[in-house]
Amino acid sequence: MNAVLEPVAVSPTRLRITEIFLSLQGEARDAGWPTVFVRLTGCPLRCTYCDTAYAFHGGEWQEIDDILATVRGHGVRHVCVTGGEPLAQKRCVQLLGKLCDAGYVVSLETSGAIDIADVDTRVSRIVDIKTPGSGEVERNLWSNMALLTPNDQVKFVICSREDFDWAADIVRTQNLAEKCDVLFSPSYAQIAPADLAQWIIDARLPVKFQMQLHKALWGEAQGR
Q1: What percent of the chain has pLDDT over 90?
Q2: Its pathway (predicted)?
């Protein structure tokens, strides 16, 4: 009689990882700091301007303790967990908590389409609110706005003047500038950065203009 093979149980402490690498943080509050990036595999969104489609599939399963060991080996204080959409993997919350416990300055880049309630508040949650130009505006989970703290950040990637006007209205109606830092970024190669900068100035909008430092330094190079 042939033996019945039991299905292999998935470890409760594993995550599918696309890459872990050391670079400079190119965006948000900690821009310029040497940072270890932990890029998780998978994303349920398909934004028109996505520059990390290679993280949608593939990757390798890694134990959380092994991920922590790799991070520790790079020898820097700042860690950014990103994707894809990292919160699409439920164990991401566990990883974030352990990184905080280990004393790192931790940030999370998330689309804003998934509930952030379970994310450790020691983490700076960078919530990317999707504009109409992203093609994913209907995926925004507006209940996340009530969960924001001064440690968090909100980002809008602006693809057009229409996107700017839409985002400015959200900033005002949601009182975002009173809750946390608000960041406006020009969509790479879609609008001129100087145009976005001038729109912000003209509107006296209480937001921070930012560009992607890593792209200015290394272009579209993966793992930078």
Answers
A1: 85
A2: Purine metabolism; 7-cyano-7-deazaguanine biosynthesis
Q: Known binder of ligand: residue 223? A: no
Task: Confirm whether residue 75 is marked as ligand binding.
Answer: no
Domain tally, the chain: 1
Cα distance between residue 29 and residue 112, in whole Å? 18
Q: Is 80 one of the annotated binding-site residues?
A: no
Question: What is the extent of the structural domain holding 107?
Answer: 14-218
Is residue 223 a part of any domain in this protein? no
Q: Please compute the mean of the pLDDT values over residues 169-173 and round it to a whole number.
A: 98
Look at residue 9 and tell me whether its pLDDT is greater than 70: no
Q: Is residue 75 part of a domain?
A: yes
User: Is 84 labelled a binding residue?
Assistant: yes
Do residues 139 and 146 make contact, with C-beta atoms less than 8 angstroms apart?
no
DSSP result, 17-42: EEEEEEEE--SSTTTTSEEEEEEES-
User: Is 47 labelled as part of a ligand binding site?
Assistant: yes
Check whether 82 is labelled as a binding-site residue: yes
The token pair that represents 134 in the structure block: 């992203």
Domain annotation covers residue 1: no
26 marked as part of a ligand binding site:
yes
43 is in an annotated binding site: yes
